[in-house]
Design goal:
With 261 residues, the protein is an alpha+beta fold. It is built from eight helices and twelve strands.
Length: 261
């Protein structure tokens, strides 16, 4: 995202191309669209000069997938389906009071409690970054492989402007990581930037955005960093200990900041 023009480029559910963040930038620079998805996003990226099609599976990822299949495809992200302990094919679970249960907060908490074990530092690879140049222009970008054992076709918060990242030269920027399926429902980075626009310091803006999610989903796992146009930065997290790094021209090396939940 270009914080000067508010242009955004994104790709989602793209396979066979390694450089997802470069593909997203090409969408921003060379199309009037905001997002391309699926195999056509791969075709576009390759046509614009990126390497591919490429087999992106590794020995490690194939071993992990095979062990998951041997474990009856558990854990997974299915809910209210049958069979419960099998690899499918899946069908909706017909429950008379399912609609009523969806309205109960207790049921929501139970669902997110089950999810929380699948989002953590050992199975998460989201990278969000903000950069401010010497003219004050701000840019942000986010890249991720997505959730481990996700349902095919799933799109998380990575390519969603305002969720995984957001920037505005007049205010500042934000990046996010965590349980994207939950966090994208709140557009936390848009919230952070708008809170800073209204006068909040980065620390309070970050904490406010995280607390809004936690009030509805007390067991979610996630974090945001916030930086204003003057370079003042802070982070906030829930459900894990979050670290982010900063480098400025005045610093001899990168400094890592640790944020406690």
């Amino acid at each position: 995202m270009n914080g000067a023009t508010m242009e955004v480029g994104a790709v989602a559910a793209m396979r066979y191309v390694k450089d997802g963040i470069r593909a997203a930038r090409l969408v921003m620079l060379h199309t009037e669209h905001t997002m391309l998805v699926g195999d056509q996003a791969s075709v576009f990226a390759i046509s614009m000069g990126l390497s591919g099609p490429t087999n992106l599976s590794s020995t490690e990822s194939l071993e992990k997938w095979n062990k998951w299949k041997e474990s009856r495809c558990l854990p997974n992200f299915r809910k209210n389906v049958l069979p419960v302990h099998n690899c499918g094919p899946y069908q909706p679970k017909e429950t008379a009071d399912l609609s009523r249960n969806r309205c109960l907060m207790a049921n929501s908490v139970e669902t997110i409690t089950r999810r929380s074990s699948r989002v953590g530092v050992d199975n998460h690879d989201t990278i969000a970054m903000a950069a401010i140049d010497n003219m004050g222009h701000i840019a942000v970008g986010t890249s991720t492989n997505g959730a481990t054992f996700k349902i095919p076709g799933r799109v998380g918060d990575g390519p969603i402007a305002g969720s995984s990242a957001y920037a505005d030269n007049e205010v500042g920027a934000c990046g996010a990581t965590g349980d994207g399926d939950i966090m994208m429902r709140f557009l936390p980075c848009y919230q952070v930037v708008e809170s800073m626009r209204l006068g909040m310091e980065p620390k309070l803006a970050a904490e406010d955005a995280i607390s809004r999610i936690a009030r509805k989903y007390p067991d979610f796992v996630g974090a945001v960093f916030a930086v204003n146009k003057n370079g003042v930065h802070a982070g906030a997290c829930h459900g894990w200990t979050f670290q982010y790094s900063v480098r400025s021209p005045e610093m001899a090396d990168v400094e890592v900041f640790t944020v406690l939940p």
